[in-house]
Amino acid sequence: MIDFNLLGNEYGTPLYIYDGEEIEKRINIIKNIFKNFDYKIFYAMKANSNPELLKILSKNDLGADIVGPGEFIAAKKGNIEEILWNGNGKITDDKKFFIDNGLKYVVIDSFEEIEMWDNTDIVKLLRVNPNVDAKTHPHISTGLKTHKFGVPLDEMDKVKDKIDGLHLHIGSQITDVSPYMEAFSKVINITNKYKYEYLDIGGGWGINYNGTELNVEEYKIKVLPVLEQFRGKLFIEPGRFIIGPSGFLLLKVIQVKKASGKYFVVLDGGMNVLIRPVLYSAHHDIKILDSRSDEKCTCDFVGPLCETGDIIGKNRLTEIPKIGSYVVVENAGAYGYSMSSNYNGMPKPAEVLVYKGEKKLIRKREKIEDLFKDCI
Ligand code: LLP
């Protein structure tokens, strides 16, 4: 059990807190599902790239899916050996740096990018767009032909001899298995036709923010038989599934304001520390650690920033927390810290790992002076 009050008192807020055992438990769920496959997990670093968390992943033999040099260096600091480079805007200087430092796999996003990888020993996967609707938020849906990612599946023949396999990632926070079945069967027809050695099926497994999540038992029953048609090496790129439920955001109540018939609980962090609620209308459960009374009222949990969109949770029927107490925002491990910002001149939060009965500060709170260190 994590003692949130203790951590808040010791490290201050806003504070990201991670549960190392939960990370391992979730890795093992994935490993168990794919145990009969020849597979490798490449953790999607965009979800959270703190090197101390990555050390837990490397100990469990995970590789990393990176987008740019910051994530590449984080992977190295986390002792991750196998690195795969995904992205639709690759830069030649980065390519040289990555190859010099042991990059193994690349996912090519366009026909135009193919020649960038001629005469290299890197394993090349081509990202294909299967034109399948992942039925998730439009900002994080990626597998329709109108989206910027990949090449149309039915046009890939022209580069078929220049690649070693295919890649697809149809979206994120997917809770329905049917888009996976549809997309994978389309792609496996092609990998089998050209006898490719590799198929990377991306990530996207939806977690339980608000009652629905990807049903892994259903995935086993319905999606694995489709994947079994592929005879080569399978790559998987989960991010959120591993780290999302393993992370919490601890915030302090700095004001409770009553206006227009409801309460606004003002916290010491908002869209600067967790942008998901305003960006995707995302729901995160909020746990109150100390309340005024048992009476429930409708509350908006808001941050201290100057925007109406500065919201952590809207219209929650809940007890009113005491000023100075803490609230815990759940499922905050993925795309929380990694999408945080300095908006309104706010320093980035600290991060703490709780693992094997110990707590460890894994990133110090940013200092106000750091905000100006590059100004000239
Ligand atoms: N592979 C590729 C190529 C991706 O683009 C992504 C996520 C993943 C794997 C991992 O997806 P996951 O398993 O985490 O769903 N900021 C958004 C999510 C953006 C996801 C971008 N790509 C959010 O907060 O919901």
Q: CATH superfamily of the largest domain, please?
A: Alanine racemase
In the CATH scheme, the class of the largest domain would be Alpha Beta
The CATH architecture of the largest domain can be given as Alpha-Beta Barrel
Bound ligand species: ligand LLP
Radius of gyration: 22 Å
Q: Name the average pLDDT.
A: 97
The fold-level CATH name of the largest domain is TIM Barrel
Uncertain segments are: none
Number of helices: 9
Q: Calculate the terminal CA-CA distance, rounded to whole Å.
A: 46 Å
The tally of structural domains comes to 2
Helix % is 10-25%
Largest sheet, described in full? Answer: 9 strands, mixed
Overall geometry? globular
Secondary structural class:
alpha/beta
SSE ordering: HEHEHEHEHEEEEHEHEHEEHEEEEEE
Strand content: 25-35%
**Count the strands?**
18
Helix-strand layout with pairing:
Blueprint: H1 4-11, E1 15-19, H2 20-33, E2 39-44, H3 51-59, E3 63-66, H4 69-77, E4 83-85, H5 92-100, E5 105-108, E6 123-129, E7 151-152, E8 165-167, H6 178-193, E9 198-200, H7 216-227, E10 233-236, H8 240-243, E11 247-259, E12 262-267, H9 276-280, E13 286-288, E14 291-302, E15 311-321, E16 326-329, E17 350-355, E18 358-363
Parallel strand pairs: 1-17, 2-3, 2-10, 3-4, 4-5, 5-6, 6-7, 6-8, 8-9, 9-10, 12-14
Antiparallel strand pairs: 1-11, 11-12, 11-16, 13-16, 14-15, 17-18
